[in-house]
Amino acid sequence: MKAQDKQIGAPMNRVDGRLKVTGGAKYSAEYELPNMAYAVLVGSTIAKGRLTSIDAKAAEKAPGVLAVVTHFNSPKVPGFDTAGKDPSQPATVGGPLKIFKDDKIRYNDQVIAVVVADSWERARYAARLVKAQYAQEKHKTNLEASVSDAFLPTAAKKNPKHPMNDYQRGQVDAYKTGAIKLESEYVIPTEVHHPMELQSITAHWEAPDRLTLYDKTQGTMATRRDFAKEWNLPEENVKVIATFVGGAFGNALHSWPHESAAIIAAKVVNRPVKLMLTREQMFTNVGYRPYTWQKLGMSATPDGKITAITHESIGQTSTYEEFTESTLAQTRMMYQSPNVTTRYRLASLDVCSPIWMRGPGEATGAFALESAMDEMAHMLNLDPLEFRLRNYTEQDPEKNKPWSTKFLKECYQLGAERVGWNKRQLKPGSLRDGEWLIGYGMGVGTFGAHRGAATVGAQLLPDGTVLLQCATTDIGPGTGTVMTQIAAETLGLDPKKIRFELGNSSFPKAGTQGGSSTVNSVGPATQEACLALKEKLRTLAGAAFASAKKEDVTLTDGYLTLAGNAGARVPYADLIKQGGDKAVTVEAKPGPEGQQYSMYSFSVHFAEVRVHELTGEVRVSKLVSCADAGTIVNEKTAGNQMKGGAVGGIGMALMEAAHIDDRFGRYVTKDFADYHVPVHADSPDVQVAFVNKPDPHVNNLGTKGIGEIAIIGVAPAIANAVFNATGKRIRELPITPDKLI
Amino acid sequence: MNQFQYVRPSKPQAAIEAVTKDANATFIAGGTNLVDLMKRGIATPQKLVDINRLPLNKIEKENNGLRIGALALNSAVADDKLVRQKQPLLALALNAGASAQLRNMATVGGNMLQRTRCSYFYDLAMPCNKREPGTGCGALEGINRMHAIFGFSDKCIAVHPSDMSVALVALDATVLVSGPKGERRIPFADFHRLPGDTPEKDTNLEKGELITAVDIPDGPFTKHVHYQKVRERASYAFALLSVAAALDIENNTIKAARLAMGGVAHKPWRLTAAEQVLVGKPATEATFRQAAEVAMQGAKAFKHNAYKLKLGPNTIVQALRTAAAAA
């Protein structure tokens, strides 16, 4: 790609693609430090109670073992001692588990010991020799059995403006008196993120008060803040490095016990300590999409106008932390209904805390809302797409504000054409191909176009490259690639001459990579840092540049040049002599636009499924995902995100479920033989289409965010297609063959 | 991992001796299941006797049949010309199992000796009579969606996970075994056990006995065969339930039939009564349905696997339909 080409929008290959496929990209478990030790966790085998003793003698005597740290011998973690904040009190909003602080067991496989040895194999062997005794208490791990104890989140109780409060416009529960009405219950089981890369960390106390962490995290700054706080250190004494992250889907948005354990272990043995979770521990200690029960009531007029919606949900959380998510947000703004009621509740169970999983909350809520839309359309004998069009919102009915942009109708049109929606029959079970019943379904998704403050540093290096730095992470969407494109276009420089470094808390600060906010936030910071760099170089470039506009200034082949003035050429060396190689650092922040507009990305997913008439097996034969995500900076990486989300949605719809045996309060799904994610054979060639129209309000680039809307709405699209194929409405995910025969 | 000794004899007799003499010794071939079990602390052998150097991987014609060496790789058997020609059902079943990578490591003998995938068996913190006799069956009143509907006991309701074995029991295979007391031949249907009071024993192999080969007699099942495996994803998953079907059809009349089910019992489940229903009847949907009903007699479900009572007959019908239609 040449410098003069338009960079934003170009389908550029990933800047780190070669490193990733050749093994050159270094992930958190791949750092080797001198004198490193290895840690393996030991988990509890009960869900609730107290530890009465731990017999670590055999483990301590095992070959190579350096330490076995438990509640009984752990050094004090100073930040755990904040008075009055007992993590076991559900009355508080709580916080991450404080491991080894007390003898309480709050969930099954809770970390009760960390074994440190001179090799990982030896640590793993010794970990199995640690024996614990418990005083067991009666546990609760079943949400359905805890519905009567469900409560309004504390944050909502304390603050009447908190979004988790009950919401209503018009009349409360007005659907009950509607002419045509439905009332359905929906269940989403616990789903686990399971990125390919296991959670891992290397903790290194470089000095008694200086800590470096090579960690799998979605936010280097957040992780730095958490552990600086845990050890009462100034934030600048903690450095977090996460150059590459092998997927996360939300489970690295939070600090987890294994990170605390590695840091404590490193303190005890006074060596750098590496700790990597097992796949089994990925089920139990790093969050999940919470088991959620929902009830949705809807009424409509015979001509297809929604008159009322009531949407209630109860999500599972732990006893020590109140995890909440926006399960009901989409219901409040997606359709034009004069009466809307939402009620969000939590149930505290003896489980590990959940954490946002791709399309958090909205993906769960959309399963209920978009299934109910299909159910109502069926009752009205209306095409589900037509039903949605009749209730389309031209402005946000919740906030009574204009949309910053909304091109959902364009998405509908793009998707309907590509999937062949005109083949869909109103009557379920009408289409078949031999033994396979064929059906079509759709589901809509939305997610806030969030933007936060971000800072980027830009620097001209003597070799003529421009180095950009930002603390943001790249968990897979291609952040480094699209920032390189934004910088290349802003500077007029060949992308090959740009290096965007990220994943280090020492770099200029940025928020956590989550909530589809990175391009919205770091994109403008990159753009502005590049403009500031050009401006700085212009001022150093002498008379010819004195009155030049910065848009006309470009960096090309070792020279600062000026559009329309071939004679104005200043070699970088001259600029560097005058201090041109010093970095400029610019922060970009959102303005008041969020007060004026309602800003959302939108998506629609269309599925064609085949259901076997005898075995109940479901195969997704077509999946078309269309997004209104503002400007698409790179259609290739953006398309990757959409496809990844769609495949995640197939998993959510058809196979993913983590089950606890409530008698033991313990997961029975603990590996990929029991917990299924889609394989290639389960994924059709997902077709992606973008409206690709800029949003002029979110930021100057016109972006709105992609990651979440890629999955939100996929599961109901598939469930609705299954209904269209079979006439069977499955309201409890996943839709496995046993539910269809 | 536990410390263990490792030996790699080159003669079958030496391997047999090594395992016979040592109470905690076990054979290892592909290791695709054993290594997992060792990593999790479920199997803790103190000596591994690697048999990969033994000359047991041939696939050859033998006395009106096919002899497949115990060390022949699953992928090699599935791709073998003789196998595809004489026993295509076996190739279909093999290719329905695991992944290409695993089939490239797993051997025929090892496939038969796979242990159950019951999640209670796999978790040291859960009760399991198969893993630790006397601790109880976790699945009996637990989450038993994957579990048995035939031949179980109150000690164990686990199922055997192999696809290959379902085809072999249907094809009247014989297992050739060499042990400290010499050689013997075990009919495939008697190779695996029902759990009874000793679910810790999966098979009737005795200590030190080494599987050397499997014999499959030639038969008429070279065309109308099908292996129907039902699972919630398209590939790389253990069966919710599977059916191996083989028919010999002449003028639309079934002359001979073989039928077996997987994912329903502690062993591959041969359906001889249903086979008898099929023989002499026209190859029609009604015949298949009738056979399927007979096949399910005596089936009993638990809390989460009642769907198998319906999925079973449906899958039998589907397998027979497909086998009959195979050109």
Automatic annotation (TrEMBL), chain A:
- From what superkingdom does this record's organism come? Bacteria
Give all residue intervals belonging to the Aldehyde oxidase/xanthine dehydrogenase a/b hammerhead domain.
Answer: 22-138
Keyword Oxidoreductase applies: yes
What organism is the protein native to? Hymenobacter metallicola
The UniProt record lists the keyword Oxidoreductase:
yes
The protein's UniProt keywords, in alphabetical order, are:
Molybdenum, Oxidoreductase
The Swiss-Prot or TrEMBL record annotates one GO molecular function as: oxidoreductase activity
Protein name, please? Xanthine dehydrogenase family protein molybdopterin-binding subunit
What the entry lists under InterPro entries is as follows:
Ald_Oxase/Xan_DH_a/b (IPR000674), Ald_Oxase/Xan_DH_a/b_sf (IPR036856), Ald_Oxase/xanthine_DH-like (IPR016208), AldOxase/xan_DH_MoCoBD1 (IPR008274), AldOxase/xan_DH_MoCoBD2 (IPR046867), AldOxase/xan_DH_Mopterin-bd_sf (IPR037165)
Extract the Pfam families matched here. Answer: Ald_Xan_dh_C, MoCoBD_1, MoCoBD_2
UniProtKB/TrEMBL annotation, chain B:
Which UniProt key words apply to this protein? FAD, Flavoprotein
- Judging by the UniProt lineage, the source's domain of life is Bacteria
Q: Which InterPro entries match?
A: CO_DH_flav_C, CO_DH_flav_C_dom_sf, Diverse_Substr_Oxidored, FAD-bd_PCMH, FAD-bd_PCMH-like_sf, FAD-bd_PCMH_sub1, FAD-bd_PCMH_sub2, Mopterin_DH_FAD-bd
Domain FAD-binding PCMH-type: residue ranges? 1-221
Keyword check for Transmembrane helix: no
Q: Which Pfam families match?
A: CO_deh_flav_C, FAD_binding_5
Q: Which GO terms describe its molecular function?
A: FAD binding; oxidoreductase activity
Signal peptide (UniProt feature, chain positions): none
Entry keyword annotation includes Flavoprotein: yes
From the Swiss-Prot or TrEMBL record, give the protein name.
Answer: Xanthine dehydrogenase family protein subunit M
